């Protein structure tokens, strides 16, 4: 196999891995928001609470319309 082709294939594989990781995080965040929307906030209090909060805060970092949820979900 040509060295250039191998390098391109490796870069493409790394990009796919990054995209899949991002999609998994997005699915988790969307699931989290649906739980909030349906009033099942008690689900957050399980062992995944810290991860849920981090994913949610990352999702909402620059989105003003979701800032009200940050006030509702004060975990400190």
Which labels suit this protein?
70% helix, 3 helices, mainly alpha, 0% strand, 76 residues
How is this fold's topology laid out?
Layout: H1 3-37, H2 49-60, H3 67-72
Helix pairs in contact: 1-2
In words, what does this structure look like?
The structure is a single chain. With 76 residues, the protein is mainly alpha-helical. The protein has one domain (23-76). 70% of the residues lie in helices and 0% in strands. The protein has three helices and no strands. The chain is rod-shaped. The model has no long low-confidence stretch (mean pLDDT 69).
Give, in order, the helices and strands. HHH
Number-wise, the strands total 0
Kindly estimate the percentage of residues that lie in beta strands according to DSSP: under 5%
Termini separation comes to: 55 Å
Helix count, per DSSP? 3
Q: In a few lines, what is going on in this structure?
A:
By secondary structure, this protein is an all-alpha fold.
